[in-house]
């Protein structure tokens, strides 16, 4: 039994892999009612003032669905969703332990820092071993790719070829590593220690959203980030010519090249370039519809 599972058992929390299937767990946590502001404040004060563990447990239970939402944003790392959820639940429990209801923010806005921190640590421990440090060449690529890039943004085909030749890896490995390194940076401005109750949360935990509920604001921003990850995944799945056409036709901020200019460069008709572009866009749109 791993530490995350042990902690969940000790706190009488449902375990993702213990309900027969992950779908059953997700369905179960989505049946738990969402707390109102007044209910959340009352429970938080009961736990803070009287160390009422039942109140703390209810706070955790009501936010398990949010942990599932955050965990789904890390699907691209090749790890089991159930494991990510378990780690995120540990972060949620730590957040409930430190939450101050007098700061005027919803628990979800405070807890997201702790949930992501636990998932991030878990991903790094596994991703570093499985996805990066498998060969000496890949380790060298990981630490030298950013230095080898001549500009910000995605590399063009010539740059990819040059980096692959210089570091003695395949072009596919360069593109895959670039996709990882170009992912969203995730800042964790909550305290770095795990269990020190005397360390106050960082100021960023108390930033308030004026226009909408904090949980809705976070989910909206997270959805936008997931779309960006799907775009990167779609680009990585295209052949070199299609990728170059899409990049220069749709993603280059400097200037949008014409079909005829690309046709002259590749030695084909403008209609052929249009067909390649249409097929590439169709493949990428399929990812968003999945």
UniProtKB/TrEMBL annotation:
DNA-binding interval(s): 259-278
Keyword Heme: no
Listed Pfam families: Sigma70_r1_2 (PF00140), Sigma70_r2 (PF04542), Sigma70_r4 (PF04545)
Region (Sigma-70 factor domain-2): 59-128
Entry's localization field: Cytoplasm
Keyword Cytoplasm: yes
UniProt keywords, alphabetically: Cytoplasm, DNA-binding, Sigma factor, Stress response, Transcription, Transcription regulation
Motif (Interaction with polymerase core subunit RpoC): 83-86
RNA polymerase sigma-70 domain residues: 83-96, 258-284
Database matches in InterPro entries: RNA_pol_sigma-70_dom, RNA_pol_sigma70, RNA_pol_sigma70_r1_2, RNA_pol_sigma70_r2, RNA_pol_sigma70_r4, RNA_pol_sigma_r2, RNA_pol_sigma_r3/r4-like, RNA_pol_sigma_RpoH_proteobac
Sigma-70 factor domain-4, as annotated region: 234-286
Database matches in Gene3D superfamilies: RNA Polymerase Primary Sigma Factor, Winged helix-like DNA-binding domain superfamily/Winged helix DNA-binding domain
Region called Disordered, residue ranges: 184-210
Family the UniProt entry places it in: Belongs to the sigma-70 factor family. RpoH subfamily.
Quaternary data: Interacts with the RNA polymerase core enzyme.
Its job: Sigma factors are initiation factors that promote the attachment of RNA polymerase to specific initiation sites and are then released. This sigma factor is involved in regulation of expression of heat shock genes.
HAMAP family: Sigma70_RpoH
NCBIfam families reported in the protein's UniProt record: PRK06596.1, rpoH_proteo, sigma70-ECF
The protein, known as: RNA polymerase sigma factor RpoH
């Amino acid at each position: 039994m791993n530490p995350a599972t042990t902690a969940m058992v000790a706190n009488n929390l449902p375990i993702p892999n213990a309900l027969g299937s992950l779908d059953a767990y997700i369905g179960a946590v989505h049946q738990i009612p969402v707390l109102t502001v007044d209910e959340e404040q009352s429970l938080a004060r009961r736990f803070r003032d009287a160390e009422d563990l039942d109140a703390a447990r209810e706070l955790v239970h009501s936010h398990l669905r949010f942990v599932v939402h955050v965990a789904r944003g890390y699907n691209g790392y090749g790890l089991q969703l159930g494991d990510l959820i378990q780690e995120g639940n540990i972060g949620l429990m730590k957040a409930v332990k430190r939450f101050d209801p007098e700061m005027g923010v919803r628990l979800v806005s405070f807890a997201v820092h702790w949930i992501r921190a636990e998932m991030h640590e878990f991903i790094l421990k596994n991703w570093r071993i499985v996805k990066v440090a498998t060969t000496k060449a890949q380790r060298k690529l990981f630490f030298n790719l950013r230095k080898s890039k001549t500009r910000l943004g995605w590399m063009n085909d010539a740059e990819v070829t040059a980096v692959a030749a210089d570091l003695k890896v395949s072009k596919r490995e360069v593109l895959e590593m670039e996709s990882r390194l170009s992912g969203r940076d995730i800042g964790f401005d909550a305290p770095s220690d795990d269990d020190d109750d005397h360390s106050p949360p960082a100021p960023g935990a108390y930033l308030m959203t004026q226009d909408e509920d904090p949980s809705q604001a976070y989910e909206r921003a997270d959805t936008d980030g997931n779309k960006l990850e799907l775009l990167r995944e779609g680009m990585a799945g295209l052949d070199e010519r299609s990728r170059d056409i899409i990049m220069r036709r749709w993603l280059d901020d400097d200037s949008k090249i014409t079909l005829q200019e690309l046709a002259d460069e590749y030695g084909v008709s403008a209609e052929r370039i249009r067909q390649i572009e249409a097929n590439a866009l169709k493949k990428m749109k399929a990812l968003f519809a999945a």
